[in-house]
Amino acid sequence: MKKIVSFVFGLSFLLPVVASAASFVVTPSGGSYTVGDSIVLTVSANPAGSTIYTAMLDARFSPGTLEVSSFTLNDSLLPLKQSGYDALDNANGILTKTGGFTGGITTTAPFGVVVLRAKAAGTGTFTVADSSKLLDSNNADQQSGTQTASFTIAAKPVVQTAPAQTTQTPSQSTTKPPAETKQPTTKSTTVANAAETPATSTQVAAAATTGISPTLVWILWLLSVIAAFGAGYYIRSLKSR
């Protein structure tokens, strides 16, 4: 009986301690993403029955697959920028941020927003370390435990573009067909000569119609010219005597 009473009595001291265990709450606690995606985490402070005045988030994340793009402290908090209370180290995966709640909080209140970038394929984690603090009015730390959010990051798919289709247009020949050559119309030599050479005397015309040789016609015409020239010369000689 004494052992039972002692157990119940001891339990009465433990229950308040468990009930007052304040903590940070991170949402979402997991998910699947692709390289290049942004992962937005909302961080809240849960006082769990205590009155919390100061909150210090001390987080660790996977530097190989994640990096912190930004952190925004809730407007209702007063930021604490002193060394050891404010840090961001993407190379080693460390994020530390601290702020004070004016008048304290007794219910869950937003602390800040963390934006992570998925930079490589694999598994990335964001862990609220046990070194985080939620301080009451006596500066006693009420924060207890850790919380880890785990994310699966897939490689960015390679977009295969189909080769552009080219439409071939029939090429137009630049060679012109040979120009048609007109065959010259040949005229009879006799007709051409008759058309091009006008008759110089009635004898030539008469000879052409009677079918006498053109050479003979010219000889006769030349003799008639010489005879006329001689007759005229003879008549002028007689008059001059």
Detailed description of the structure:
Strand 7 and strand 8 (94-105) form a beta hairpin. This protein has helices at residues 2-19, 189-196, 202-210, 214-240; strands spanning 23-27, 30-34, 38-46, 52-61, 66-73, 77-79, 87-89, 94-105, 109-118, 122-128, 133-135, 147-154. The strands form two sheets. Strands 2, 4, 6, 7, 8, 10, 11 and 12 form an eight-stranded mixed beta sheet that branches. Strands 1-3-9-5 form a four-stranded antiparallel beta sheet, with no helix packed on it. With 241 residues, it is an alpha+beta fold. It is 26% helix and 34% strand. The radius of gyration is 61 Å and the shape is rod-shaped. Helix 3 runs antiparallel to helix 4. The protein has four helices and twelve strands. Residues 161-199 are annotated as: Disordered. Residues 161-178 have a biased composition (Low complexity). This is Cohesin domain-containing protein. The chain crosses the membrane at residues 216-235.
Note the overall shape: rod-shaped
Class derived from helix and strand content:
alpha+beta
Number of domains: 2
Figure out the total of helices: 4
Report the CATH topology name of the largest domain. Answer: Immunoglobulin-like
Mean residue pLDDT: 80
* Cα Rg: 61 Å
Beta content: 25-35%
Distance between the termini: 203 Å
User: Low-confidence runs (pLDDT<50, min 5 residues)?
Assistant: 1-19, 186-201
The CATH class label of the largest domain is Mainly Beta
Number of strands: 12
The largest sheet, given as strand count, sense and whether it forms a barrel, is:
8 strands, mixed
Secondary structure: helix percent: 25-40%
In the CATH hierarchy, the architecture of the largest domain is: Sandwich
Strand/helix succession: HEEEEEEEEEEEEHHH
Organism: Candidatus Kaiserbacteria bacterium RIFCSPHIGHO2_02_FULL_55_25
Region (Disordered): 161-199
Signal peptide: 1-21
Keywords: Membrane, Signal, Transmembrane, Transmembrane helix
